[in-house]
Amino acid sequence: MGSFWHAFADMSAVEANGPFVIDRAEGTHVWDESGKRYLDATAGLWFANVGFGRAQIAEAVATQMEKLPAYSTFGDYSNRPAEALCDLVSELAPVPNSKVFLTSGGSDSIETATKMARRYWQLVGEPERQIFINREHAYHGMHISGTSLAGIPANAAGYGDFLEEVEQVAWDDAAELAELIHKLGARNVAAFFCEPVIGAGGVFPPPEGYLKAVRQVCRDTGVLFIADEVITGFGRCGDWFASGRFDLEPDLITCAKGITSGYLPLGAVVAAPRVADEFYAARAGMFRHGYTYSGHAAVAAAAIANLDIIESEDLLGRARELESELPAALERLMTLDVVEEIRSGLGVLAAVQLDPDRLEEDPALPMKVVAGAREAGVLTRALGPGALQISPALVTSANDLEEMVSGLAIGLEAAG
User: Fold this and answer.
1) Rounded mean pLDDT of the chain?
2) pLDDT value of residue 365
3) CA–CA separation, 31 vs 379, rounded Å?
4) Please, are residues 271 and 116 in contact by the beta-carbon 8 Å criterion?
5) Minimal CB count within 10 Å: which of 17, 51, 141, 392?
6) What is the pTM of this model?
7) Which pLDDT tens digit goes with each residue over 347-368?
8) DSSP track, 304-336
9) Domain extents in the chain
10) Which helix or strand (DSSP H or E) is residue 168 part of?
11) Stretch 232-247: mean pLDDT, rounded?
């Protein structure tokens, strides 16, 4: 066994069975070292929006690396790819004249947003606003802030308390959010974190009117509305941002994954003028926060090339088509007794929920289904509430959907 400590892994099981090594990828498929092909039903980890094997991105990175791979962007240092990328993301953002702070990934972006929120309230003279509110089922990364904001209990278990000023509400009840803010006192609440579609917690699309309602609650109380679009950004919900599709006008947007389609690690926080203007004022002084690779030149070049592909190939339009094609394809799985429901209907996101009674009888059932599907040539993964993640690339074809559903059916039938 090698020395690689895998993420989110039971390493005793990995050591016992050996790693599953992905060797290469093209389009919507990956191959293992033996040459077996698999349909990737998860787009890596929600990120491969444009699919694999895009020479345009690789060439952009190689060209930039030959010229300038990276340099610090602390203080007044900069580079043209980082400048161009931030201008582009600002143009795509749902709030005009937003500023863009670059990070190394989604968890970094959440950590940055929590610090921005706290610092913002200090700058405007309300330092007592310390409390963050999250939702059940929410996943906001695995840094200190994200772990504290976890709506998936298992992700916070075993670490003790980090941020103590965190409260949680139901994932689908705007009235509960309003009541909690009233109970806590609006002047004590810094921000509300909201995934437009809950992702790793089980793929829960928002109930009709929910997003508009919680956004209005935050407006009425002055609480910062932070849209966690690490998964939903850059096309996955049929628009550049789900926040734009639903006219949410967030104060902060956290993003990552689809910004480069995973070709290189990158995240960002998009700050609306309400927040950014306070940091840009002369009285604000230095914002003592950042990362070694904030504004990494080669990574920014990858992102620009990736966003160009999304635009030139109208993958936003393709995502809107898949929004109906995906649930229609998955519907045939409802004939299997082991399947309780299919959650989908917003963007290229879905979950196959397994029957609760079967889960109670056999808690290992999701992993058995995942293993069976892999054997049948389809890669998926288990999500928190005993569901299967379905989030294929935005370039997925009708034939890909058929291949995916056939492999999932085999895995479900074998395990159920």
Assistant:
1) 97
2) 96
3) 11
4) yes
5) 17
6) 0.96
7) 999 999 999 999 999 999 999 9
8) HHHHHHHHHTTHHHHHHHHHHHHHHHHGGGGGS
9) 11-53+314-415, 55-312
10) strand 166-169
11) 98
Q: Which two tokens stand for residue 173?
A: 């009840």
> Is the confidence at residue 416, as pLDDT, over 90?
no
Q: Identify the CATH assignment for 55-312 out of 3.30.470.20, 3.40.640.10, 3.40.1410.10, 3.40.50.970.
A: 3.40.640.10
Tokens (6 digits) for 53: 């094997």
- Whole-Å CA distances, 76 to 73, 83, 140, 276: 7, 12, 30, 17
Strands 99-103 and 267-271: antiparallel
Tokens 């997003």, located at residue: 211
**Residue 347 DSSP label:** S
Assigned CATH class of 11-53+314-415: alpha beta
Provide the token pair at 155. 């992700």
Contact 89, 97 (CB under 8 A): no
> Where do the H-state alpha helices sit in 222-341?
242-245, 273-280, 297-312, 315-330
The rounded distance, in Å, linking the Cα atoms of 294 and 285 is 19
Angle between helix 210-221 and helix 174-184 axes, rounded to 10 deg: 20
Taking the CA atoms of 288, 259, 266 and 69 in sequence, report the sign of the dihedral they define.
negative
Q: How far is CA 191 from CA 114, 118, 121, 151, in A?
A: 8, 9, 10, 15
Residues 6+ positions from 71 with CB-CB distance below 8 Å: 77, 79, 297
**Separation of alpha carbons 198 and 387, rounded Å:** 13
pLDDT at 1: 67
Please name the residue that has the structure tokens 């400048």: 83
User: At 23, phi and psi to the nearest 5?
Assistant: -100, -40
Structure tokens at 387: 């569901």
Instruction: Please choose, from the candidates 408, 407, 414, 361, the residue with its C-alpha nearest in 3D space to the C-alpha of residue 387.
Output: 408
Please choose, from the candidates 305, 265, 260, the residue with its C-alpha nearest in 3D space to the C-alpha of residue 70: 265
Q: In this structure, are strands 387-390 and 382-383 parallel, antiparallel, or unpaired?
A: antiparallel
Question: Measured between alpha carbons, how far is 301 from 309 in angstroms, rounded to an integer?
Answer: 13
- In whole angstroms, what is the distance from residue 416 CA to residue 411 CA? 8
Q: Tell me if 314 sits within 8 A of 205, measured CB to CB.
A: no
What's the Rg (C-alpha) of the chain?
Answer: 21
